[in-house]
Amino acid sequence: MASLRNVAAPYWAEFIGTLLLTLIGLGATTQSILSEQSSEALHSSVAWGVAVTLGIWVTEHVSGGHINPAITVARAIFSGFSLPKVIGYLVAQTLGAFAGAFLVWLNFVVPLSHIKHSSPGLHPATHAFITSNDTWPGLVNEISASFIFVIAVFAISDQMSNAKNIAPLALGLAFTGASLAVSSPLQLALNPARDFGPRVFAAFAYGWDVFSDHSFYFWVPIVGPFAGAILGAFVYEWL
What backbone torsions phi and psi does residue 72 show, to the nearest 5 degrees? Predict the structure, then answer.
């Protein structure tokens, strides 16, 4: 039994860590939308940074605190992370993000139901869960921000770094900085699971047009973070 627990623990950690990340981040995003705050960019960026910090703090000693499929893949390519674990981590992270979206919906279901849907097409409430942008600007944003963030991830976790002792906090600040610097956090994922898991939930809750929104934009927050993460890891490890 103990052996089974040890095998399963990293996957549960990635599930729970990504759930915390999504619950806190999406919760803040939802509150920004519902309250129509003028400072929603700052509010959401800081909240997502806190979410990253807590997600990593909870999981780093069990699973390494990836809580992001792009980080997992970059670690597998450049840091010797176990290839057989990659698929399990990606599934756990995506399911954790889905569960986090469900918990956010459960907390805000009443005010979200008051958002008027007066025209055909995408329900406005889905913006609490998904990212949305024009395809090419969005792709550039995702690659650029993920590139910045993953360089920070590899630098901060480097054994030679003085920041490794406060890695979760430092990475939360790095995420906030990348989000604020490049684009609105309501339009950035920097994490394929953070968008895809909640997008699947939003499809069940509000309709499957979340996948056709903005010319099938859903692939951008998947491909962009993977590309940016791999590029950032390459630059740090090889250049």
Answer: -60, -45
pLDDT, tens only, 160-169: 888 878 999 9
Residue 206: count of CB within 10 angstroms of its CB: 20
41 close to 180: Cβ distance less than 8 angstroms: yes
CA 211 to chain centre: 18
CA angle, corner 182, sides to 176 and 188, nearest 5?
A: 75
| Residue 18: predicted pLDDT | 94
Residues 100, 170: contact at Cβ < 8 Å? no
Cα separation, 160 vs 163, whole angstroms = 9
Residue 127 in tokens: 């913006």
pTM reported for the whole predicted model: 0.91
Nearest-5° Cα angle at 113, 102 to 213: 70
Query: Shortest CA distance to 45 belongs to which of 24, 16, 72?
Result: 24
List pLDDT tens digits, range 107-119: 999 999 988 877 7
Cβ–Cβ under 8 Å, residues 18 and 96: yes
What is the distance in angstroms between the CA of the first residue and the CA of the last residue of the chain?
45
Helices marked H in 79-117: 83-113
Distance CA 136, CA 143 (A): 11
Q: Mark 74-91 as b/e (b = at least 16 C-beta within 10 Å).
A: bbbbbeebeeebbebbbe
Distance CA 143, CA 45 (A): 17
Distance of alpha carbon 223 from alpha carbon 174, whole angstroms: 21
